[in-house]
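Data card: per-record layout.
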Amino acid sequence: MTTNWKSGNEQSANQKSTIQQTTKTSATHTISGTTLSSWSLQQKLAMITSFVILGLMLAMSACSKQSSKSALVGVSSPVPARGTSAAQIAASSTPAAGVVSTSPAKKTPKKRPANVTYSDANSGVSFLYPRKALLTSGDNPKPDLAAVGDVPMNFVQPGGASVATVALPDNAYPGTDFSSAFFRVNVNRNVSEQECEHFAFVDTRNADGEPVDAEKAKIGSAEMETTSSFSASAIKQVETQYYHNYENGACYEYVLGLGTEGFATEGGIEHVNRDEVFAKLEKILATVKINPVEQEHVAEPTSGGAASGKE
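The structure for this 311-residue chain is written out next.
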């Protein structure tokens, strides 16, 4: 067995090293403790306050981030569940049926009727006429019928009175020799039912001066007697058609007239289609209705005319 003996110097060195380390550690703890214990109360409060402020700032930052995430989630569209069909997705994105649009509805302009109704309680006459036409009634001045002039009544007895006159617009047939056209209603209570079937105008071709033969015509649902008259010159031409029927104890006369100017031989002016003009006037005549008239509403004629006299 071998025994190693250290020299006194080495043992003394180790002991010295151990003592130095112990002394250094003690010194360190002493310094740290001395430093902490040496802080004043004011410094300790300042440190605590700093930590509290830092904690509040961190908490506020966290809340702000959470609010931003919530807003983004609310705005974003929901993701359709797996297996959702395209029809279901479209239905979910369509506004509810009960939602009413707040935009104001556009007002559609109301269209005015093409025809206007005329009615006269005294004579019982009513009819429809074009809105663009000119109507005069009773004692009002009659429209200026260019190329026609004053058209006489065609009763066999005097005492007739004009009820109403409708004149077509002057520009109804542009580019033609059309001058004027009218529809007129006359009434005569001095004519009997038998006399109402005849007309005062005589047949100029008959040497005996016999009245013009009347013809039967059915206008609408009414049977009427009719005749016509025509006159022409180099300046104007006038054609009139007369219709008579007896109702309410009076003879009603309807006059359809057309006036033209010149013979349309120069300036590229064409003849107006006479059949077309009279067809338009006959449409007014077809709407005529004679309503019953009570005796107290019957007035004496305000204007008279001879058998072949003027209004």
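Known properties of this structure: The beta strands are 115-119, 125-130, 134-137, 161-167, 178-188, 215-219, 222-232, 236-247, 250-261, 289-290. The longest strand covers residues 236-247.

See the next section for split statistics.
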